[in-house]
Write a structure and sequence with these properties.
Blueprint lengths: L1 E10 L2 E9 L5 E5 L5 E7 L5 E3 L7 H6 L7 E2 L5 E2 L3 E4 L2 E4 L8 E2 L12 E6 L3 E10 L10 E10 L3 E10 L3 E2 L3 E2 L15 E4 L1 E7 L5 E7 L11 E2 H5 L6 H4 L3 E8 L9 E4 L6 E6 L3 E8 L10 E5 L14 E2 L5 E10 L1
Antiparallel strand pairs: 1-2, 2-3, 3-4, 4-5, 6-16, 7-10, 8-9, 11-12, 12-13, 13-14, 14-27, 15-26, 17-20, 17-22, 18-19, 18-21, 21-24, 22-23, 23-27, 24-25
């Protein structure tokens, strides 16, 4: 196993490097310390041919200009906080409104546009890169100075693991995710890709995609991926749902079940390449995103974003997203590839 480090560019006087982690099976992952971005995931298929499993850009400037969070670590708070505000301990906080009327993915100073410090570590069975970042009190309107550590590792079992830990000196909401755009198939669209999500419900949302607080059963709706199913089979089924029709595709938070130990929360399989990815996470929600399947906006990729529920700071009935001084927030995401 090995790590190769190369210069990828410079932003605001800070050097950005590309870190390529490789195992002995031919799998490699390239990471950037700009945004903690996953730039490449190369996985050999059954014939040993490499399949590129995420969308990527060729230059740093492309990532700087990118509005889609492609491949990046998202924070301080993934997804939406309603109307750019929440109240904590009697204090109302005003956040950036960068997602229409709402705060989206941490606001204008999100982690996806930061240069992170980096250190590497190699051993016989694992190679890793640890990115660190400090978000000052008041950044984006959020309380507390937050110290974040994101460790990516690749092992000999073709598993890419990401563990994000954080602590704070004031109580604050935290929710980090990884925003890779997965392309396990060679198809230009994701309709033929098979998907399983271990969830019986999704969070209901209004026309601005802000949760209402209600939950929707996935049974007999386009959201039902309780068994491995082609995405277009669900998207085009006769029984639609108003929540699906508002998007014309998928951009919804799944309420993950408490899966048995060692069971994945999601599985993606591409029949044409033979590549399967199993996703494991300790977070309570999973945002499934495809862009508009019923329009020309389809991404040719899909996103599976482990997260706390959208707008949880304003919805006490949702799983707790607040972290206090002395506590350590931990988000774990593990992607196991096979062919």
């Amino acid at each position: 196993m090995k790590i190769n480090v190369s210069a990828f560019g410079e932003v605001a006087g800070e050097v950005v490097n590309a870190f390529t982690l490789s195992n002995d099976n031919g799998m490699s992952v390239t990471l950037l310390n700009y945004g903690g971005i996953i730039k490449e995931i190369q996985v050999p298929n059954a014939e040993g041919e490499l399949v590129s499993c995420v969308q990527s850009y060729n230059t740093l400037q492309d990532y700087i200009d990118d509005p889609s969070y492609r491949g990046a670590i998202v924070g301080r708070y993934a997804n939406r906080i309603g109307h750019g505000t929440f109240t904590l301990n009697g204090v109302q906080y005003a956040l950036d409104k960068n997602g229409g009327a709402h705060n989206l993915h941490g606001g204008l100073a999100g982690f996806h546009k930061k240069v992170w410090a980096a250190k590497t570590q190699e051993s016989d069975d694992k190679v890793s890169v640890t990115f660190t970042l400090t978000s000052p009190d008041g950044e984006g309107g959020f309380p507390g100075t937050v110290n974040v550590e994101a460790c990516y590792s690749l092992n000999q079992d073709n598993e890419l693991c990401l563990v994000i830990t954080a602590n704070t000196d004031q109580e604050t909401p935290l929710s980090f995710t990884q925003h890779a755009y997965f392309t396990l198939s060679n198809d230009a669209k994701v309709g033929n890709t098979l998907l399983h999500i271990d969830a019986d419900k999704v969070t209901d949302a209004d026309t601005t995609l802000l949760p209402t607080g209600d939950l929707v059963d996935v049974a007999n709706t386009p959201f039902d991926f309780t068994t491995l199913t082609a995405i277009k089979q669900r998207a085009e089924q006769i029984n639609s749902h108003p929540l699906f029709d508002r998007v014309g595709g998928y951009d919804h938070n799944y309420v993950l079940r408490n899966a048995p130990e060692h069971s994945p929360q999601a599985i993606v399989k591409a029949l044409d390449t033979g590549i399967t990815m199993a996703l494991f996470t300790n977070l309570p929600g999973l945002q499934f995103y495809t862009g508009g399947l019923k329009s020309d906006d389809q991404l040719g990729a899909l996103c599976l974003e482990p997260q706390h529920f959208p707008d949880a700071p304003n919805k006490p009935e949702f799983p707790n997203c607040f972290v206090k001084p002395g506590e350590t927030f931990t988000a774990s995401m593990r992607y196991k590839f096979s062919a």
